[in-house]
Amino acid sequence: MSGPLALLDASSDDPSRVLPPFDDLYASHAANVDRFCLSQLGDAEAAADVTQEAFIKAFSAYERVSPDPQTARTWLISTPATVASTIAARTAAGGGLSIAWRAFARARSMSRY
Length: 113
Known about the structure:
The protein is mainly alpha-helical. It has helices spanning 22-41, 44-65, 72-111. It has one domain (22-111).
């Protein structure tokens, strides 16, 4: 398997094992992750943002985690599930989705520095 984003599996003793290209993983699971986020947040714009963040984090961890193709969807959904539950808790606290989402986005941007 080869492609622009194919990576060697760093945890494998077999240097010939190559992870599937990340773009294949994205193509296979992006719609499912986005639907999950939408079902949790109820807002298409917030869901798209959380989906994007999930795939950015997944790409950063892809080589280190080396997800099994059979469990990749579960691995990909774990990040937006955490984010969505944080946002849902803030929304339930009375802030509303837009206030909760702004608070999450602010915290996320501050953690990048």
